[in-house]
Amino acid sequence: MAFSKGYRVYHKLEPLPFSVMVEARNREECLMFESGAVAVLSSAEKDTIKNTYSKVMDAYGLLGVLRLNLGDTLLHYLVLVTGCMSVGKIQDSEVFRVTSTELVSLRADPADEDRVSEVRKVLNSGNFYFAWSATGASLDLSLSAHRSMQEHSTDNRFFWNQSLHLHLKHYGVNCDDWLLRLMCGGVEIRTIYAAHKQAKACLISRLSCERAGTRFNVRGTNDDGHVANFVETEQVIYLDDSVSSFIQIRGSVPLFWEQPGLQVGSHRVRMSRGFEANAPAFDRHFQTLKNLYGKQIIVNLLGAKEGEHMLSKAFQSHLKASEHSADIKMVNFDYHQNR
Q1: Which residues of 268-302 are buried (b: 16+ CB within 10 A; e: fewer)?
Q2: To the nearest 10°, the Cα dihedral for 161, 101, 207, 261?
Q3: Which of 83, 188, 322, 329 could be joined to 203 by an S-S link, Cβ 3.0–4.6 Å?
């Protein structure tokens, strides 16, 4: 079965209260959003009230509910995928890039739309992906091939719309039945051949949501050891019933540092904490990596420029002084000089 707009959104303006209802093509039940609450209605309950609702739009999928604080008021928006493009198939699932979204206010105020225009721009940037399967449970792009085979995996580092699921979870809705899971990054899928056999080669880069932010504005680590621009890149090959996965990770230097400045070129590296104050987060970062991925080798890509050289020396000094120096090797590779 081809992927299509399988969700239909309705609203009821009168009589109050304002209400939004969502139908899914493959489900008898529907979702109803009213007065800040969410309920799953049976087929019989839906048929009783459906004639008081009018159609708003169709969508490919639901991402959840965005909650936005506006002073003393908490606004709610239903987030929908209205445009997407297939990038290929992995086993029984098809992978799609999100190209268009809509945020529907759950209180019917036209002014609410302007408040989330920047959120829509981010979601429509072409950096978000999801998987869909017509046969049942779809592939979870936020998990590597190894983790997806583990039961009850709770690795949410690359699950970008996790917070949008919370509102429905609060009201007991099974989000796996209704909502998509988004990954941010990049996906490339190719069919390759090994003699007479056909295989799928995939390159999946997952950006972590644990310390998100734009370049120059978010650098280094936080107190939990989560670093900016942390990316897990997986090269995975599917051949018959076999799966081969190779993972590389990268991230910002796990120290407290920043690059203040308004223009590119004026940003100077500045350490924002002293040596001792950096140590706990540095240790947490590498302990987490070893727990998640096993033995580590650091490839230090910092160059010889003034700011990078200072940061590189600090990185090397912290590793040497830490408990990880015994089992983590650092290879210095000046990326700028060798590219």
Answers
A1: ebebeeeeeebeebbbbbbeebeeeeeeeebebbb
A2: -110
A3: 188
Instruction: Mean pLDDT check: name the lowest of 8-17, 75-84, 151-160.
Output: 151-160
Give dist(CA 201, CA 268) in Å, integer. Answer: 41
Q: Which residue type does 109 have?
A: D
Residue 264, amino acid: V
Q: What gap in Å lies between CA 135 and CA 137, rounded to an integer?
A: 7
Q: Which two tokens stand for residue 155?
A: 């690795």
Tally of CB atoms within 10 A around 9: 22
Which neighbouring-strand residues pair with 38? Answer: 33
Strands 297-300, 329-332: parallel, antiparallel or unpaired by DSSP?
Answer: parallel
Cα-to-chain-centroid distance, residue 197: 33
Residue type, 301: L
What is the rounded CA–CA span in Å between residue 42 and residue 197?
A: 47
